[in-house]
Amino acid sequence: MSQQLLMLGAFFLIIYFTMIRPQQKQQKQRKTMLSDLRKGDKVVTIGGIEGEIKSIKDDRIVLKVAHNVNLTMLKTSVGQVVTETTNIQEESNDEQALIEEK
Fold it and tell me: Is Transport a UniProt keyword of this protein (predicted)?
């Protein structure tokens, strides 16, 4: 009986450290990213639209995607904040893909 409980406890710990804990960490990072959004940040939405935040009100943002083209959307639609390092990494990945195709 005690061996079964020990195995059950070990199984729960394995599940916790491989699935539950990383997911909670990712949710915390996303919540922090969304709360740190500022006017002027360049972002990419979950749908792939790139733009610059023009204004933020409560749970909505106005995203400038082109000259005189603004989109109002939920904050939660932001997939990532684009930084200079993100652009360099994407260009590096694109170059690597081109090399592998040759």
Answer: yes
